[in-house]
Design brief:
Elements (H helix, E strand, L loop, with lengths): L1 E6 L1 H10 L1 E2 L4 E4 L3 H7 L4 H21 L9 E6 L5 E2 L13 E4 L3 E2 L3 E6 L5 H15 L3 H11 L4 E3 L4 H5 L1
Length: 168
């Protein structure tokens, strides 16, 4: 099963040093029944893209909570055994948890398929979005517009062998 783990740049550096993403439990995003129903598509590529975007939003929240983290969203695509990622059935109707899964133990970095990272030109919008996130959560439309501005940036794809260059 492909899951998308949201991280920050310091989190990616720690995972690289440890050789695993962890410790568990980890929050990740995947194509879950709730995400399928919300997205209303049977195209697996579209559904995985939606899960990736949910993870990118979660990465933004991690950035907002860590003032020392670089203002670039990081998502690691990881393949885990079926059953290793479990959706919480009690939160299936909570729109903020669409696609959210829990992985109980650390995931070896060798299970990573790719790393998705914002380009340098996204940093200004990601910085503004991280600062506006709290107000957006409270219903401020202008703040939500700012948060959406970060989501307009596509994450770039990198192979796991490129992690040392990313954490530089």
């Amino acid at each position: 099963m492909r899951v998308y783990v949201p991280l920050t740049l310091p989190g990616l550096a720690a995972a690289h040093q440890a050789g695993e993403i962890g410790p568990g439990p980890l929050t990740a995003y995947a194509v879950t029944p709730g995400l399928r129903e919300w997205y209303v598509s049977d195209d697996i590529e579209e559904l995985e893209y939606a899960a990736l975007n949910r993870a990118a939003s979660a990465s933004l929240r991690l950035i907002a909570g860590n003032p020392d983290a670089a203002r670039r969203r990081i998502v690691v695509a990881v393949d885990v055994p079926d059953g290793a990622a479990v959706a919480d059935p009690d939160r299936s109707l909570d729109s903020s948890s669409l696609g959210e899964v829990r992985i109980s133990s650390p995931v070896p970095l060798t299970a990573a398929a790719a790393v998705h990272v914002d380009a340098d030109d996204a940093e200004k919008d990601v910085t503004a979005a991280a600062a506006a996130l709290g107000a957006a959560d409270l219903g401020d439309d202008d703040a939500q517009f700012t948060v959406d501005g970060a989501e307009d940036h596509e994450l770039l794809w990198f192979g796991i062998q490129e992690i040392p260059n990313l954490i530089g």
